[in-house]
Amino acid sequence: MAHEIEQFTDGTAAFVSANESAWHKLGTVTDGAMTAEEAMRLASLDNWNVRLLPLTATEITADGTTPVEVPQHFATARTHPKTGRTQTLGVVGTDYHPVQNEEHAEFLNLLADESGAHFETAGSLKNGRQVFLTMKMPQSLRIGGNDQVDLYIAAFNSHDGSSKFRIVVTPIRVVCANTQRAAIQGARSSFAVAHTAGAKARIAQARSALGLTFKYAEEFEKAAQRMIDAEMTLSELKSVVDELWPVKDDSPRAKTNQRQRWGAISNLFEHADTQAGIRGTRWAGYNALTEYANHVAPARGKSDADKAAARAERIISGAANDLMEKAFALTTV
């Protein structure tokens, strides 16, 4: 399934959400906030004991089978949370050091103790290869007097060597659940740590770096207010769209895609309910771009449900983050 939430044969799923269910309707929904320990247990993320195993290959010849060592490479493996059996997750090199789910949660728990944040979601993707935990900060931002923006801290980890341990600070517009990432000058909105021998120490450093979270929130609120106070014309928005999605050839297909993209974005900018109260501003232009990137842009799938699931996965994975940060840079004042 496109959401890639890990599901077990007993009918449960490795996902938990505070107060409300997710779009995929899987996992456990709690009544109220969660502690780190509750999030780990309810999402089946505890006691995985991710470890490295020597890697061998088997050569099959006319004379039989011969085991062959694979030097400088290891298999990552976990103890399956339901069966208790060893399950391989990926292949990594000699520099790779696992970051346990417990260390992942411990880092966020330190932030919770300091800030008053609480755990919002936790889960496993791709059969244990990737894990995420998110926390909701205690205070919301108020932009333009009526646009509520909640601030989340999300931490992502991979156990298959596909990505670094990373932490992002994400403001989300409640009215349309639009994930927004902005590169705010002077404040960090993300932090990544490679899975090497010093990973645990550098994760601790990330806590210090994310002490800028509140500065980030303050700067985001100020930047958004400046954008609300500044008008934006359709022609100005079109210039931004052309820079974000340059047309590289004159083929009929490329021109059709360009025309359809602009039609969708301009319609969001001029008519979408999510633009009520901010229409015609640079903030509306930025929101039209992010809403298109996350929710409207074409997605692969045979059915409408598959396409909707693919768009939701696009938000979870942060596939459009770079584009949204560039969009912010082009629309901010």
List the helices and strands and how they pair.
Layout: E1 15-18, E2 28-30, H1 36-42, E3 51-61, E4 64-79, E5 86-93, H2 101-115, E6 118-125, E7 130-136, E8 141-143, E9 147-158, E10 165-173, E11 178-179, E12 190-193, H3 199-209, H4 213-228, H5 234-244, H6 252-271, H7 282-296, H8 304-317, H9 321-331
Parallel strand pairs: 1-2
Antiparallel strand pairs: 1-6, 3-4, 4-5, 6-7, 7-9, 8-9, 9-10, 10-11, 10-12
Question: What's the quick description here?
Answer:
The chain has 333 residues and is of the alpha+beta class.
Describe the overall structure.
This protein is an alpha+beta fold. The chain has helices spanning 36-42, 101-115, 199-209, 213-228, 234-244, 252-271, 282-296, 304-317, 321-331; strands at residues 15-18, 28-30, 51-61, 64-79, 86-93, 118-125, 130-136, 141-143, 147-158, 165-173, 178-179, 190-193. Strands 1, 2, 6, 7, 8, 9, 10, 11 and 12 form a nine-stranded mixed β-sheet that branches. Strand 9 (147-158) and strand 10 (165-173) form a beta hairpin. Helix 2 (101-115) packs parallel to helix 3, helix 6 (252-271) crosses helix 7 and helix 7 packs antiparallel against helix 9. It starts with 14 loop residues before the first strand and ends with a helix.
Q: What class would the helix/strand composition place it in?
A: alpha+beta
Q: What is the gyration radius calculated from CA atoms?
A: 22 Å
List segments where confidence is low: pLDDT < 50 over at least 5 consecutive residues: none
**β-strand amount:** 25-35%
Distance between the termini: 41 Å
What is the 3D shape? globular
pLDDT averaged over residues? 82
Assembly type of the chains comes to: single chain
Give me the number of helical elements.
Answer: 9
Q: Give helix and strand order, one letter per element, not per position.
A: EEHEEEHEEEEEEEHHHHHHH
Helix content: 25-40%
